[in-house]
Amino acid sequence: MTEMIKVGLLGIVGVLIAVQFKAQKPEYGTFIGLAIGILIFCYVLKELQVVMGQFDLVRKYLGSGEGYLAILLKVIGITYICEFSSSICKDAGYGTVAQQIEILGKLSVMFAGIPILFAVIEQMQTFVK
Q1: 77-93: b or e for each residue (b if 16 or more CB lie within 10 Å)?
Q2: Mean pLDDT score of the chain, rounded to an integer?
Q3: How do the domains of the chain map onto residue ranges?
Q4: Local confidence band at 129 (pLDDT 50, 70, 90 cut-offs)
C-alpha cells in the first residue's frame, strides 16, 4: 500500500513539474514525462520479481498446461508495453502513431492467443467423439 502511494506521488509530482516546463519548452515537458514513466516502469520490473515467484507456484499446479501461463505472461507484457508506448506518443502529440501502436498490440494479443484457441478446439473435438 505504501509503495503504491509512493509511486502515485512520484507520478503526480512528475506531472506537475512537466506541466511547468511544458508552457515554456514543450519538449522538456515530454522528456520529463518520459523519464517519470521510465522510473515507474523500473519500479514495476522490480515488483514483477515478486509476482513471478507467485507464478512459479501456479506453474507447479498447472503441470502440463505450463505453456498457457507463458502465453498469459506474454500477453500481459504486450499489453503493458503497448499501453506505455501509446501513452507516450499521445502525450507528445502523435495520436496517429499511438493508435497504430494500439492496433499492433491488439493484433499481437490475438495472435499470441491462437494456441489457446487451438487447444480449446481440440478439447471440444475429444468430447464430441
Answers
A1: ebeeebebbbebbebbe
A2: 84
A3: 2-128
A4: low
